[in-house]
Amino acid sequence: MRWSQTFAIVIAISAMMALASARESEDAGTLRQYADKIGFGVGTVIQPRFWDRQPLFKPTLAREFNHAVSIVVMRLTQPERGRFDFDSIDSDKEFAREHNLKLFGAALVYRNDSSPDWLHFERGDCGGWSGRELDQILKEHVQALVRRGGDDFYAWEVVNEPLAPGHNGCWARVLGQDEMIAKTSQYAREANPHVLLALNDTFGQAGVDREKTDIFFELIRRVRKLGAQIDVAGCQMHLEMRQLHPGYVDEFKYFLEQARKNNVQVQVTEMDVYQGPEGAISDPYAKQKEVFYNIVHACLKDSNCTSFTVWGIQDDLTWLRTHKDLLDANPVLFDGQYRKKPAYYGVLQALKEGR
Questions:
Q1: Is 240 within a domain?
Q2: Is 96 in a helix, a strand, or coil?
Q3: Theoretical Cys-Cys bridge with 73: which of 23, 114, 229, 272, CB 3.0 to 4.6 Å?
């Protein structure tokens, strides 16, 4: 064998070994391991109707995440007045204790359709409840949930999406939007003085709309004057790649700046990135990886941004398919077989780089 042939073989073998080493390095560690090292929250949502039917759901959640969102809307937790169903809360607490997870409760107040039938919020008169009656119902419900959650729940979403037209429905109509937010937070604080309280909203599919950001923080200032206890500004980022603004990262940084000025933490409470229909975006999954990396990286570079939650554990279970009929949506970190996608490695890279 000629020396040149030998040299070529050596180079080829070295290249293969380097590639194998790079792949092994890329796969080394989990999201949770790197998040734990820097005291950062990385989470996903518990989807009860799936996690007992999907053998890989619980192991993946426990291995990759240190935070989890527990869905505790009133329709599920108080199906009849005065009769609470704590099965889901207790189940989530048990799993969290077993795997040392922190729970985020979502949400104490949300839309009419997340409220139980006995409230009759579908009626034009909002069930005929007086302000005093509904205030008492609100207090009993909030305090029952927060007390049951105990210290296993590190945070509660006080009100979800208060800026969406009509989203808080009869609660806001009868009690007054600002007053309802203030009272909900006060009742939660009374039930657990140590828990973080979040006000959460969505800011568009193209980035983080600056005008809505300004309105959101004005709302926080306004309700605080009424006695609201708000510790966390929750930023939802359900992004669609075809609509994405070139300056979406700067928009998120603007949100971070406003939060710091208003003395509240930031948590990215819900994030997914719809890649678009086939052929709409060149190399969509590389782009998706970039978007996830950029947002997590920006969050980590601001010490006031404390956690990131991806909204769904794997693509087949995404709400974009089950609720929005986007059957081609592959918007999260794992595919339908729980295999790591490029987006996973975007988040992992940001976590490895740390704060």
A1: yes
A2: helix
A3: 114
Segments forming the whole domain that contains residue 144: 30-353
Reported as a pLDDT band with limits 50, 70 and 90, residue 347 is very high
Instruction: Give the pLDDT band (50/70/90) at residue 27.
Output: low
Give the tokens for residue 13.
């073998």
Residue 306 tokens, joined? 């404390």
Integer CA distances (angstroms), 61 to 95, 121, 178, 200, in order = 10, 35, 36, 23
Q: Which of 213, 102, 229, 88 is nearest to 163 (CA)?
A: 213
Cα distance between the two ends of the chain: 53
Per-residue pLDDT at 51 = 87
Mean pLDDT value across residues 117-145: 97
Whether the predicted pLDDT of 17 surpasses 50: no
Instruction: Determine contact, residues 200/161, Cβ cutoff 8 Å.
Output: yes
User: Rounded distance, CA 93 to CA 104, Å?
Assistant: 11
Number of domains within the chain: 1
Whether residue 278 is contained in a domain is answered as yes
Q: Which two tokens stand for residue 98?
A: 């077993």
Q: Can you tell me whether residue 233 is helix, strand or coil?
A: strand
- The answer, as to whether pTM is greater than 0.85, is yes
51-89 in b/e form (b: 16+ CB < 10 A) is beebeebbebbbebbbbbbbbbbbebbbeeeeeeebebb
Q: Is 223 exposed, middle or buried (0-12, 13-18, 19+ CB in 10 A)?
A: buried
CATH number (domain holding residue 57): 3.20.20.80
pLDDT digits over 172-181, tens only? 999 999 999 9
Task: Tell me the sheet residues that pair with 268.
Answer: 235, 308
For 233, the token pair is 């500004």
The answer to whether position 3 is within a domain reads no
11: in domain: no
